[in-house]
């Protein structure tokens, strides 16, 4: 018997993520940044969609180590919200790196529709080494609130 391959994680733009969240009330946005980022940089605001993003650190602040309980914590939050292994899950971080790792971890845990928000909340560094100037949730003008 052949092993079951985990679902492939695709890359989705922030604008496409917003449109998909708006179109599918069962879709979930998972913000995997640190508590410090949520508090000081801001959060995606899904209140106009009558929901909130799930907040689970992929790397724990200030140690900056991968959260060993990430899959268990998020699985419990998803179950409490009524999400299933077939729900669309959109993972976002600062610029798309940590969220990709988190999405792959959840895909390996059996969640079949994991998507990485490619540009993240703030996007990549610009020539002056600043974020939030080229792409990302905030640059696209999508709703957000200060944490």
Major β-sheet, in short?
Answer: 5 strands, parallel
Low-confidence region ranges: none
Structural class: alpha/beta
Instruction: Tell me how many strands there are.
Output: 9
Q: Level of helix content?
A: 25-40%
According to CATH, what is the topology?
Oxidized Rhodanese, domain 1
Features:
alpha/beta; 147 residues; 5-stranded parallel beta sheet; Oxidized Rhodanese, domain 1; two-stranded antiparallel sheet
Topology:
Layout: E1 10-12, H1 14-23, E2 28-31, H2 35-40, E3 43-44, E4 54-55, E5 59-60, E6 65-66, H3 70-81, E7 89-92, H4 97-108, E8 114-117, E9 144-145
Describe this protein's structure:
- With 147 residues, the protein is an alpha/beta fold.
- The chain has one domain (10-145): Rhodanese-like domain (Oxidized Rhodanese, domain 1, 3-Layer(aba) Sandwich), CATH 3.40.250.
- 27% of the residues lie in helices and 17% in strands.
- It contains four helices and nine strands.
- It has a five-stranded parallel β-sheet. A two-stranded antiparallel ribbon has the order 3-9.
- It is globular and about 40 Å long.
- The mean pLDDT is 92.
């Amino acid at each position: 018997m052949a092993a079951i391959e985990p679902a492939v994680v695709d890359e989705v733009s922030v604008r496409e993520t917003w449109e998909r969240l708006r179109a599918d009330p069962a879709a979930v946005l998972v913000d995997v940044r640190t508590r410090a980022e949520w508090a000081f940089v801001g959060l995606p605001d899904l209140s106009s969609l009558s929901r909130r993003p799930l907040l689970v650190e992929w790397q724990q602040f200030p140690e900056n180590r991968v959260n060993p309980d990430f899959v268990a914590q998020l699985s419990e939050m998803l179950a409490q919200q009524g999400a299933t292994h077939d729900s669309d899950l959109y993972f976002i971080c600062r610029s798309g790196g940590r969220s990709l790792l988190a999405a792959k971890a959840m895909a390996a845990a059996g969640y079949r529709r994991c998507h990485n928000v490619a540009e993240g909340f703030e996007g990549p560094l610009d020539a002056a080494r600043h974020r939030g100037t080229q792409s990302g949730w905030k640059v696209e003008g999508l709703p957000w609130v200060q944490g």
